[in-house]
Structures are given as structure tokens and as C-alpha cells.
Design goal:
This protein is an alpha+beta fold and 213 residues long. It has two domains: 6-114, Response regulator (Rossmann fold), CATH 3.40.50.2300; 122-211, Orthogonal Bundle (Arc Repressor Mutant, subunit A). Helices cover 41% and strands 16% of the residues. The strands form three sheets. The chain has a four-stranded antiparallel β-sheet with strand order 4-5-6-7, with helices on one face. A three-stranded parallel β-sheet has the order 1-2-3, with helices on both faces. Helix 4 links the parallel strand 2 and strand 3 (92-95). The chain is elongated. It starts with 5 loop residues before the first helix and ends with a strand. The model has no long low-confidence stretch (mean pLDDT 84).
Length: 213
């Protein structure tokens, strides 16, 4: 859930958890842009966010090829804004205030519609991933990857050429409240290098890592 009203976000996440849905809360689109691609089943976005607006976030994710269902939840209720949100790439639109039961029902409906949806492969040079089946290949040969190895390679391929800091990598691997050790990133990168080649991941000293073409 991407929402700048803290109390609303806390109540909503608590309601989702009571219904058996695990949720994460992010207060800005900028934080969400690098985090929501990591295995979520649905995304709830407020339009009136500080900084980057909710519509811009939806457009950005769709340009990146992110196909996770997106539900816009906003106080803005005009039909023009609904049409604009759907045209930007959202899958559903709810106007605040909304009952938790309806929000949960809409999320379940989005998940059902998305079931079986195949996400196109991500590829960079000889390396390819299928985010739907969680398979990976190097020069056409399958690679065995752990869950976190797959997540990290997916993060690199979603933003080709970008250097990811150790903390950005941790954001893509673990829930926000989970205990994190930056040293685990170095270990994980070392394991991946042994599988795809040491020269495929560059170390940017003092910052992080970058996947090379």
C-alpha cells in the first residue's frame, strides 16, 4: 500500500492482515518505485502522494513492464479521474472512505484475474529470467537459483545499467520490518557470480553493484 496518511495506512494494513492478507506500507511513490516489484500480488496506490504522484507511479511501473494488479484508492472521485487512472494502467479504482470488506473483495478479484498471467521474460545479454515461472537461463542453459538469488537478478534486470546500493538490494530481498544484515548482500552477490560469471556483476566501491551487459 502506497499511502501518505499514516493512520489510514495502519488501519488498512491491519484489516488486511485480519483477513489473511500480508501487507506492506510505503509512504511515498519514490520508495515504492524500487520496492513493489518484489513478489507482490497487488498494489494499492493513493493518488495524492507527496513528491511523485500516484498516477505517475502507475505509469512508471507499467513502462517498466510491471504487471502486478494495481488498485487506486483515493479521495478523488470524479469520473474523469477514474478514467485517467485506468488509462494510466490501473486495474481498479475505489473512492475513500471504503469498507474493508469491499477493499478485500476487490483485491481477491484482482488476484483471481491475474492468476495464470504470464510475465514476459527479462533479458540482458546471455542472461534471462521468467518472473512468472521463476526460471532462469544463461546462454539458453537453465540456472538453479535460490529465492533471494532470483530476486536480486530480477532487480538488476528490471533496471538495466543501474547501480544498486547494498540497502536498495536489502529492500528488494526482505520485508521492511525484517532484520537485515548488509553483509549478506556481499555473500549473495558472490554466490550469483559463481553461477553467471564473475565479470557479469561489477562492484561499485563504496556504493553497491551493477549488472553488466
Amino acid at each position: 500500500m502506497v499511502e501518505d496518511e499514516a493512520e489510514l495506512a495502519r488501519r488498512t494494513i491491519a484489516g488486511l492482515r485480519r483477513a489473511g492478507i500480508t501487507g506492506e506500507w510505503l509512504a511515498s511513490a519514490e520508495d515504492a518505485a524500487g520496492f513493489v516489484e518484489d513478489g507482490f500480488n497487488a498494489l494499492i496506490v493513493d493518488l495524492g502522494l507527496p513528491g511523485m504522484g500516484g498516477l505517475d507511479l502507475v505509469r512508471l511501473l507499467r513502462r517498466r513492464g510491471v504487471t502486478v494488479p494495481i488498485l487506486i484508492l483515493t479521495a478523488r472521485g470524479s469520473w474523469e479521474e477514474k478514467v485517467e487512472g485506468l488509462n494510466a494502467g490501473a486495474d481498479d479504482f475505489l473512492v475513500k472512505p471504503v469498507r474493508a470488506e469491499e477493499l478485500i473483495a476487490r483485491l481477491h478479484a484482482l488476484a483471481r484475474r491475474a492468476a495464470g498471467h504470464h510475465v514476459a521474460r527479462l533479458a540482458e545479454g546471455a542472461l534471462a529470467l521468467d518472473t512468472g515461472t521463476r526460471e532462469a537461463w544463461l546462454d539458453g542453459a537453465p540456472i538453479e537459483l535460490t529465492r533471494n538469488e532470483f530476486r536480486l537478478l530480477r532487480a538488476f534486470l528490471l533496471e538495466p545499467g543501474r547501480t544498486l546500493s547494498r540497502y536498495a538490494i536489502l529492500d528488494r530481498l526482505y520485508a521492511l520490518e525484517a532484520e537485515r544484515d548488509p553483509n549478506t548482500v556481499e555473500v549473495l552477490v558472490g554466490r550469483i557470480r559463481r553461477k553467471i560469471g564473475r565479470d557479469r556483476i561489477a562492484t561499485v566501491r563504496g556504493f553497491g553493484y551493477r549488472l553488466l551487459p
